[in-house]
Amino acid sequence: MPTIIRENLPRRAVKLTITVSAEEMSPDLVRATERLSEHVQIPGFRSGHATYEAVKSHVGEMKILEEALEEIVRKTLVEATDSEKIETVGSPSINVEKMAPDNDLVYTAELALMPVVEKLADYKTLSVKAKDASVKDEDIDKTLVELQKMRRVEVRSGADATATKEDKTVIDLVMKKNGVVVEGGTAKNYQVYLSEPHYISGFADELLGMKEAGTKIFTIPFPKEHYQKHLAGENVEFEVTLNELYHLELPVLDDVFATMLGQKNLDSLKTVLRANMTDEKSREEALRQEREMLSLIANRSRFSEMPDLLVNQEVNKMVQELEHAIEEKGGKFDDYLSSIKKTLAQLKLDITPQAIERIKVTLVIRELGKQMELGVSEQEMDTALDELVAQYPDKESKDRIYSVEYREYIKIAQRNKKVVEKLRETMVK
Q: Do strands 235-249 and 167-177 pair parallel, antiparallel, or not at all (unpaired)?
């Protein structure tokens, strides 16, 4: 058992100084040499079969210790938190104070203590109003128009044709301010759909009536919220040359159109769309109810102090989620920050209240699960894991899903689902 010195820190944090003797580390060092011998060629030995002394002689004792460090820390930290009866949350901050061959290992771990719900709001006295999730005929019509646009055909217009709202233009573009071309202000063969709003208000309207090979010069203001501050709200001169003009022909919304989408006729297409859209709107409404219920309970409950380490981790997680979402849409996170006129530090400050609420919601649903005494049977667990595994053909994914750690994750998810269902029965009116 390692030697542990505990120091309580402000804002529900704790610092453990943990000393692990050389004798305690011995089995971990042996396992480390086995791993190293699989990846390092040791003269005179087959891969994975070199002796401890041979590996030590070849790579050095410090390399073995470094290889074993993560396993030693992970194992002894669990022993230390169990011994101190500490319930932690988030990732610990580890700092190695002393590490040398044939010596004790000394490291510190700063951990955030799990906040507690000091007083849980009585959810039975709270309510959330259900919203209509039905799909109306106009919703179907809008979706059909979008499907129609996806199947439109571009037909090159004649030389005498003029641009209308139903057309697509391919233009060369030069933008100037005070007679000087702005940075990034030129474009070749830039496509503009005249029926769709442009990020510069009024730009598409200026192209109406133009003919191929025609040139037009006009001045309009840039958006006031534009991320380029020196252009935001400023009048900019545009010189546009129309290279190509296309008329967009939409297919007729009839039975033939429906067969193009794999349906028997237009009525059957509408039936399928209604069913799919109803499912989607029902899921969205269920998620809205869940968020509103848990937020309502969290905001009316009382909690212990939130550890800074936990709040910072949640903030960083939210920033990463936002960055990933922006990049998935083809954008750049730095451009996003410029567009909202915020630094990363300012953004983190802005989302801190949301991060704290997310933590509170997690604590609330955990506490409700305890109070409601909602359990998850082994059979329910097996069914959930089997259904998940069926979606992944590769062995690596199957092994990960059936691991002890993932089973525990699914167990928590299943219990949380039961909590939400119980809340919905009581709170949604």
A: antiparallel
Instruction: Give me the torsion for CA of 289, 291, 297, 303, rounded to 10°.
Output: 170
Question: From CA 425, how far away is CA 52, in angstroms rounded?
Answer: 62
Amino acid in the structure at residue 359:
I
* Owner of token pair 């959930």: 384
| CA–CA gap between residue 409 and residue 386 (Å, rounded) | 15
Stretches where the chain sits below pLDDT 70 are: 43-50, 52
pLDDT at 340: 85
* Amino acid, res. 363: L
SS3 assignment, position 352: helix
The torsion defined by the Cα of 65, 71, 77 and 79, in degrees rounded to 10, comes to -110
In this structure, are residues 246 and 156 in contact, taking their beta carbons and an 8 Å threshold? Answer: yes
Which strand (E) or helix (H) includes residue 27?
helix 22-39
Give pLDDT, residue 356: 94
Pull the structure tokens for residue 395: 């062995």
0.90 exceeded by pTM:
no
Q: What is the pLDDT of residue 31?
A: 87
Amino acid occupying residue 381: M
Measured CA to CA, the distance from residue 329 to residue 149 in angstroms comes to: 21
Q: Report the C-alpha gap between 127 and 149 in whole angstroms.
A: 42
Q: What is the structure's pLDDT at 131?
A: 94
Which residue type is seen at 244? E
CA nearest to 308, candidates 80, 96, 115: 115
User: Environment class of residue 147 by beta-carbon count within 10 Å: exposed (0-12), middle (13-18) or buried (19+)?
Assistant: middle
Would you state the pLDDT for residue 47?
64
**Residue 187, strand partner residues:** 173
**Nearest alpha-carbon partner for 68 in 109, 45, 96:** 96
Strands (E), 222-363: 235-249, 302-303
- The separation between the first and the last C-alpha atoms of the chain, rounded to the nearest angstrom, is 55
Which pLDDT value is given to residue 98?
Answer: 94
